[in-house]
Specification:
Layout lengths: L1 H5 L1 H4 L36 H9 L8 H10 L3 E4 L2 E5 L5 E4 L2 H13 L8 H11 L1 E2 L3 H11 L1 H6 L20 E6 L6 E6 L4 H16 L4 E4 L8 H9 L3 E4 L9 H17 L6 H13 L10 H6 L6 H5 L3 H7 L3 H25 L1
Parallel strand pairs: 3-4, 7-8
Antiparallel strand pairs: 1-2, 2-3, 5-6
Amino acid sequence: MANALATLASMFEMDRESDIVILRIRHQSVPAYCQVLEKEIDGKLWYHDIKQYLKNKEYLAGATENNKRTLRRMVGGYLLNGEVLYKRSSDMTLLWCVDEKEANEILEEIHEGVFGTHASVPNMARKILRVGYYWVKMEVDCCEHVRRCHKFQIYVDNIKTPTTPLNPKASNGHRFILVAIDYFTKWVEAASYPNVTKNVVVKFVKRDLICRYGVPSRIITDNGTNLNNKMMIVLCEQFKIHHHRSTPYRPKENGAVEAANKNIKKIIQKMVVTYRDWHEMLSFALHGYRTTVHISTGATPYSLVYGAEAILPIEVEIPSLWVLMEAELEEAEWMEIQYDQLNLIEGKRLAMLCQG
């Protein structure tokens, strides 16, 4: 096959008098699908026709039979509850249809808000859908918003970036971040320190891991002396923890925490203002990481640990369906729902395990 393809051009015969058709290739500055939809110019909301039909069975003035048939087919994916219009997602979750002003607020909060991670277009759109919002130009607007984001463009993955100076110390003197990750749920715990000594490591394992989540069955570390010493051996013997070490000079052996390190550093870089306040942004970066859907699991680490999604600040400003429903619940009903979510968490974890 390779030889046939290599000699294909030489087998083609063409007369000198034959016309050569010039093939013109058009270069798109953004993906083509991002240029399909244009902004409405009639001043009406994008869902105006859908809402009017669901509410009053009215068609747009001058609509043809083809337009009417298309509208009837389209409204099957929407639900009108009072004055609020919802879009049915593929898994039958109801997404609140928002207008242009609310969409801009959501974009800003999700991308560069308090817990914003300056995520890429797919992750950004996925997070908006998970929170419970929808508008027809969502992916287009995400493309435009990310393209205008200065920090995203600076810190986007690029192997050809020039060398830069090392990041300075934080204002409190901290230089290092100690990171631990749960291989199953991808939940990350991290804390900053001036130096990562053996005493710091043992204290971190006791305070941030054992006292919060219980005793782990095993811990995997690299071969640093601060992670492999007598104090660590005593700690593992005390709590019956199996301590494993990754292969020297092979970071892939402990790839999960290496990937978490890279992602957390990227998030902090995009969130900091003065570059000496990065230690203050660590908690917000961790929250953003924990509430982002991971491709390997198909869920957020937060939902796999607690059985429910975290309420983001934008859901308080523009109440999502879950926030609205929760506000109407009595305390007994709310507790029953929380209990059901805890019972169903094993199913979520099993689904994640099957996907992985």
